[in-house]
Amino acid sequence: MGDAVCVSTETLPGLVTGTAELRRFLHGLPGVDQVGAEERAARLATRSIKKSAKAEAIDLAISMVDLTTLEGADTPGKVRALCAKGMHPDPGDASVPKVAAICVYSDLVAEAVRALTGSGVGVASVATAFPSGRAPLDAKLADTRRAVDDGASEIDMVIDRGAFLAGDYAKVYDEIVAIKAECGEAHLKVILETGELVTYDNVRRASWLAMMAGADFIKTSTGKVSPAATLPVTLVMLEAVRDYRARTGRQVGVKPAGGIRSTKDAIKHLVLVNETAGPDWLTPRWFRIGASSLLNDLLMQRRKLTTGVYAGPDYFTMD
Amino acid sequence: MFEYAPAPESRDIVDIKPSYGLFIDGEFVDADTSFKTVNPASEEVLAEIAEASAADVDRAVTAARRAYDGVWSRLPAAERAKYLFRIARIIQERSRELAVLESIDNGKPIRESRDVDLPLVAAHFFYHAGWADKLEYAVRDPRPLGVAGQVIPWNFPLLMLAWKIAPALACGNTVVLKPAETTPLTALAFAEICRQADLPPGVVNIVTGAGETGRALVEHDGIDKVAFTGSTEVGRRIARSVAGTRKRLTLELGGKAANVIFDDAPLDQAVEGIVNGIFFNQGHVCCAGSRLLVQESVAEELLDRLKTRMATLRVGDPLDKNTDVGAINSAAQLEKIRMLSEVGEKEGATRWSPPCELPDRGFWFAPTVFTGVAQSHRIAREEIFGPVLSVLTFRTPQEAVDKANNTPYGLSAGVWTEKGSRILWMAERLRAGVVWANTFNKFDPASPFGGYKESGFGREGGRHGLEAYLR
Amino acid sequence: MTDRLSVRKTYKLYIGGAFPRSESGRSYTVNDAKGNFLANASRASRKDVRDAVVAARKAQTPWAARTPYNRGQILYRVAEMLEGRREQFTDELRATGLAKNAARAEVDAAVDRWVWYAGWADKVAQVTGAANPVAGPFFNFSTPEPTGVVGIIAPDGPLLGLASVLAPVIVTGNTAVVVAAEPAPLPAVTLGEVLATSDLPGGVVNILTGHRAELAPWLASHMDVNGLDLTGAGEELAAECEKAAAENLKRVLRPAGNDWTADPGTVRMTTFLETKTVWHPVGV
């Protein structure tokens, strides 16, 4: 794929620039047949994960959660409570793993960093005029810089979907490169907002565009647009990171976010990872799930497995 | 590594009796001789099955004739429809049981019997039920043929039964059906369903047995119609035996379908289509995409992807809900697959299978792909009817068409490209009864199915399928 | 004044658009109904069958690739040409024993039959095709396609009978090898001349005269023939041919009581049509 384009493996990650060249490359990627992709995702969703495999999957899923609060009403108190929950999801059971990160707005990063000090739980900050991304580049850069300065270990930026849909791939690309430069040590997750890109062809192109611009992770959604993370969207993105690594040797992570509320959904995603990108991606380093209410369902299912009886919400904390 | 724990579907839902009789005139009756049906995944004997003699077949045909003359042909069409709706509903109600039974007797993965076979079986009865009292809108002056003798294969036992019985009954015929000798159990369960539905005795008769029973049925003077699904070799014999009689005949026979992949195909979906085309139901599919024709410019990349994908196929216990490829249906079929695969190696093609552990007991064959295959190789010409894919390459669309059509068969074909006009260009030129474009192995009761050339004649499904059972 | 000595016609075969004699060099005598000599018709051999099948095969793909509209126009042109030769055909039919009015009526009916089938060319797919409402995100449609090369054992009706079996085979894009009515082959040869001047591509119709019992089995067993119309074969010959046809699973139209004045229906077309069903996903 792409061999017809003047893009070599060496030049690909940074040097495919200019809208015409990007367009040629991205539109030279194999198409995605919607029905076929959805069929594949649906079939993988029928995998039956039981007993020991389920226990393993639940703990893995908990450790992959980016526990998220992204409300206008967020307060330092709310963030502190969420951090406490992320470090010790089930106060009564120390064997429950901690989550991967707490995900907040940039102005609350400092609060989260304080609360999580020494815990090993990361702080992810959405940035770049989340969720719409409609702000001047200066503002986006300032937003990012502030989050990084306050100690965020991960930046979840949004792409400019308007520019993408208008075909201005270079603008999207340059913006990602610019944000990446502001990130320093922090990992950059690039949110594609797939619900606004609409087609799987666009999801695949946006995935490659983000990876070529330097994304450490590609992320489905802000959670503010419906549909958010769906199985076929995650499938297409997993295919993209698989192919990108095969092509360039660089591994990129995937983060579905929004709409994953049940253990069943989470496990379906893990099956998808396992059978699409492969087991190399089955760690919190390379796969994250952006969620809030999912965590408690994972905990309830976990307790069902250990006690043998169905649990109820009163027995789990609601932060 | 994320290992899936065993997730077996419960066997308790089925109650297999030690022995089964023939279903004639609404009753289960004994026969003088019997044979055994085994679970191909374990070689365990499941039950003793009555073997119908020529005299038994004669009794069944007589019962069917009596039911045709006395009851079925006099019944208002709307009432016929209601019987079929009733059967469709009972199948839905008992679908889990029937799926498990099918997987035990046939060896196919429960995921397929549960998600493909059984839903289609019920849909087939439901679809044809609605036709029963609307035939005059489909065909001018529709009249039933009388008694149909039907012989079906072992690859989709209950689904092929549905393909045969549903349209026959909807059109006002009565039937005598012979299931395959290695997979009689779901047909016998269907006999029970006919009783639960209060279907008048003799409208459906099930005679179990092997080739001799089938011969007695298709050669019986008292039938008006022969419908057969199976090998081209047997189909030819049947066509000869029917020659010069007034029996109507439809045949759904073998295939060696080309699955054509262009360099602009949606590659990930094409890989799924290839896998679904040849490994679905262990490749025991007459319309299987057993010849992969891939454009040379994309061959290497596609094969890499295909092999990676094949390595994720889970081969094993058919009742495990995570199994993708189950057991080969019989020792004889396994032998045939082995033999042709060895021929493929001797002919110089390169054989590859993903590492996969096969169970000790039962009949198993790892998913296999042959590369470097030429049109002249036997594995490119003969129907293997197993999980064995032969890969050939082409350079231009015309070459793809020429190679795809260069076979005496003509049942199905696949074409993968994102270019709409090329899809239609290819679809027009492929000499096959079913063309799947950017998909493969899709079935629906509303969609006519059947072959060109030596893949047989007549269609099953859709409005076209009705013509096979009407004068 | 003396009567002018007439110039007789040599009745030859019609293969691949040309009028060769039988490669065997044989002929057989054709008499009129009163037993008077009419002509020496070519007596085709198995090799003529072979050549005719080759010609039919070569013509088939391009003929099927013509637009239905074009095929319809050509069949209508056949009717026009036939109309222009009404007198000639009437005479030839009278020689077979028909009274003048009956002969004239049969010629008229034959012309009308070509017209009737000409109109089917661009309608048969609409009548026999379908868009199928499958339960899934797929567009699914069925279209009829010609079976390929069809062998026709023509009935005794030398003109109307021939038109009634030949037109439905070729109108849909098949090509034909016809074994003409054995006792009265001359109108078939003259029809060949009509076809040759009707813009019908050579090889679409090939007409052999000779002995049915000799020729039919070769057509029936030929592995490059896809369909067989046994209308003109007797019970025994038909059974033999049907058995031979099983070898490559030819589509066989069996002899049946043929009333050429009745509504022909579509069965003569549909027997030599294959239904092709195409699936495609519906997505963005």
From TrEMBL, chain B:
* Entry keywords, A to Z: Oxidoreductase
Q: Which domain of life is it from?
A: Bacteria
Database matches in Pfam families: Aldedh
List of catalytic residues: E252
Q: Which residues form the Aldehyde dehydrogenase domain?
A: 30-470
**InterPro entries linked:** Ald_DH/histidinol_DH, Ald_DH_C, Ald_DH_CS_GLU, Ald_DH_N, Aldehyde_DH_dom
Q: Does the keyword Transport apply?
A: no
Q: Which family does it belong to?
A: Belongs to the aldehyde dehydrogenase family.
Name of the featured protein: Aldehyde dehydrogenase family protein
Q: What is the lineage of its organism?
A: Bacteria, Bacillati, Actinomycetota, Actinomycetes, Streptosporangiales
From TrEMBL, chain C:
- Annotated InterPro entries: Ald_DH/histidinol_DH, Ald_DH_N, Aldehyde_DH_dom
Presence of the UniProt keyword Membrane in the record: no
Looking at the record, the residues that make up the Aldehyde dehydrogenase domain are: 23-253
Superkingdom of this protein's organism: Bacteria
Q: Which UniProt keywords apply?
A: Oxidoreductase
Stored PANTHER family: ALDEHYDE DEHYDROGENASE-RELATED (PTHR11699)
Name by which UniProt lists this protein = Aldehyde dehydrogenase family protein
Organism equals: Actinoallomurus oryzae
